[in-house]
Amino acid sequence: MASTSETAAPRARGGLTRRRRRQLVLGGEYGVFVVAVVLFVVLADWKSLHENFANWSVAKGLFPDIITVGLRNTVIYTVTGFALGLVGGLVIALMRLSSALPYRWFAMAYIEVFRGLPALLIFIFVGTGIPLAFPGASLPGGVYGQAAVALGLVSAAYMAETIRAGIEAVPRGQTEAARSLGMSQSRAMRTIVVPQAFRVVIPPLTNELVLLFKDSSLALFIGVSLTQRELTKFGRDLASQQGNTTPILVAGLCYLLVTIPLGYLARRLEARQKRGRR
């Protein structure tokens, strides 16, 4: 009798089984979503949205310049910034793991500062602070060099922590085995530990590339010319000229053409990595 009363208790308290309550809650969530979609479809001014955000006559006038100028420059800024950030991140990560106290202090300070500051401030500092600090000096590549350095400084701080975690994930037995074969500490780190660490950190580094691709839009704050505009600047300028926001929508679609495949690649790499650990 006791077991029967315990089984019936959940139904007696609320009049419904736990499974039925879950079904009702899920049905309510679907209902709210459907109502929201229906309200949007019914209440939205589709004519105005089409004219201002999806005007085909304005959109087709953006090509091929939005690809040959906007997207091309965005890719250049991203790739060069990522390359500098990867090299800098590796150096900072090794300094963070160094037995020399000053190196560790510098690496910790760098990571905390550049992860704590908004990327916009870094772009402004590189664009205006470096010329003031070093009169007459200029970075190679002009605006391209400035954008690469700004993105590299920001991404290096994040990549350093990612790479450090990857290095620490490599079993210590790998280093001990290399040392037992007569390798120096630096050679073991360079030839054994770091290559294995990069296999671990490839997925998060791919995610960092996606973030960097979007952060490249901040290049507009260092004063780009018409031929140096990235996607965001290109879309904003054309939107102002045309009096229509379609160029901004098209620029956003160009971002998605790159970020969605990269995000999918990162997820696939993470899934493959998890399968390899089983």
Automatic annotation (TrEMBL):
Pfam families: BPD_transp_1 (PF00528). Residues 71-266 form the ABC transmembrane type-1 domain. The chain crosses the membrane at residues 24-44, 75-95, 116-137, 248-266. Keywords: Amino-acid transport, Cell membrane, Membrane, Transmembrane, Transmembrane helix, Transport. GO terms for biological process: amino acid transport. One of its GO terms (molecular function) is transmembrane transporter activity. PROSITE patterns: ABC_TM1. Its main location: membrane. GO terms for cellular component: ATP-binding cassette (ABC) transporter complex. It is found in: Cell membrane. PANTHER family: GLUTAMINE TRANSPORT SYSTEM PERMEASE PROTEIN GLNP, MEMBRANE COMPONENT OF AMINO ACID ABC TRANSPORTER. Belongs to the binding-protein-dependent transport system permease family. HisMQ subfamily. This is Amino acid ABC transporter permease.
